[in-house]
Amino acid sequence: MLRAGTFMLMVVLLQGFASPSQESEKEEAWKKTQELMERGAWGKAIKALKSYKRKHAETDEEKERLAGLIARAGGEKDLAEIQKKYRKNSKVRPAMKKIKKFIRKFENDDDLRGRAEEFREAVRSTYVAVIIDFEESEDWPKDADVAGLTPETDPGMVRHGEQAGRWKTGIGSKWFQVVPETKDWAPYSYFCFWIYSAEKPGRPGYIWMQARSNPGDYFEYVYPIDFKGWKEVRIEFRGKRGFGTYRKPQWSMIEDFTFSHAGETGIPIDVVIDDVRLEKAVR
Ligand SMILES: [Ca+2]
Q: Whose CA, among 50, 158, 232, 279, lies 20 to 30 Å from 166?
């Protein structure tokens, strides 16, 4: 009785011992993986997650959950690398290109996408000055209604932020005027915006733009609307095909900026404009 009882006790102990040992190995591996993730050692964390998945994932659900974690850790690693590289070399163009691709890849991950967008805006703010972005938070031109300028909120019709400006002519006045926060345009090289035209007009419509320093002193540019779809306009404002000059305007003291449509052609336009900005020349 004693012997049998001792054996039974040993079996129980062994059984009991074997299972928690595997359990603890699994727990240990998970703990290590978590630590790596918390430390932001994403390269090592990905390896640990893959190994954990291979050795310890039993159910399909668990495998799927781990595959999701591996993909996400990959995103963390990529984002950290993009930011690190930018901090090191301050090269705007490659950073913006990479972050754009990243945002597309992780568009359904609110956290990763959100942080990537924050980084993109921080980089952007080093070389961009907003003239008007047509956001709810902004001061809209006082004469927006009369000019037929209304908020466009369809995400597919917005290039930056949450809103764009839909400009449908033929309602009242032919122009709207923006008073930009940035008055000194001298450090900038480009005047840029996005424009969408629903229809390719038979005869092109025109947008006439005027940057005024003093009353009567202004820069002007005429832009034809002879296309369908989106276009990004980039005008090098001191270039050969840049703004024309009337009297003696100064880039260092721009008071206001006016968009007019059609000029004398009288052709109505229906366009969406967004992300009107100045850009510095950057690497
Ligand atoms: Ca916008």
A: 279
Over the stretch 220-276, which tens digit does the pLDDT of each residue have? 999 999 999 999 999 998 888 899 999 999 999 999 999 998 655 667 788 999 999
Tokens of 138: 């902004």
CA distance 95 to 89: 10
Give the separation between CA 5 and CA 171, rounded to whole angstroms: 98
Over residues 106-131, the pLDDT tens digits come to: 999 999 999 999 999 999 999 999 99
Are the beta carbons of 269 and 197 closer than 8 angstroms?
A: yes
> What domains can you pick out in the chain, each with its CATH number?
2-124 (no CATH), 130-279 (2.60.120.430)
Cα(122) to centroid(ligand 1), Å? 16
Residue 111: count other Cβ atoms within 10 Å of its Cβ.
11
Tell me the CA–centroid distance for residue 86 and ligand 1, in Å. 25
List, as ranges, residues with CB under 5 A of the ion ligand 1: 133-134, 160-161, 274
Structure pTM? 0.82
- Pick from 117, 114, 102, 31: which is nearest to 71 by CA? 102
Q: What is the DSSP letter of 184?
A: -
Q: How far is the CA of 151 from the centre of ligand 1 (A)?
A: 9
